[in-house]
User: What shape does this take?
Amino acid sequence: MESEPRLLIMALGANIDAHRNLSLAQERLRTHWHDIRFTQPVCTAPVGVATASFLNCLAVASVTDDYPAIHTMLKEIEMAMGSTTDDHHRGIVLIDIDVLQLGSDRYHLSDWNRPYMRGLLHQLEAELHVKPSMP
Assistant: This one.
């Protein structure tokens, strides 16, 4: 039995060949969710690491998948694109894709208050007409 569709919001970021890697990740996500939409990317300063600037965007889709399946698929995309945990720890991010919200459940809570994230969430509402679940 298939579950009811839920809102999925993901954060994408890259700091190495960022435009290309963000675009490639978006293509790969479209193969899983054809209705997925993306905010315009924004360039941001790194948080907590001394590295190159990041290019970030949000993705939104209506999904029936559960969190473990989504998380696994996102990590598989990252790995297929050559992104590793060791590289992330060194500030080398080919691509990072994180679930921010699935249904009413929110993840990566510290990210929600970052200024660039608030701007992307505003863009999500204003341009894509999606209202995230707020605390």
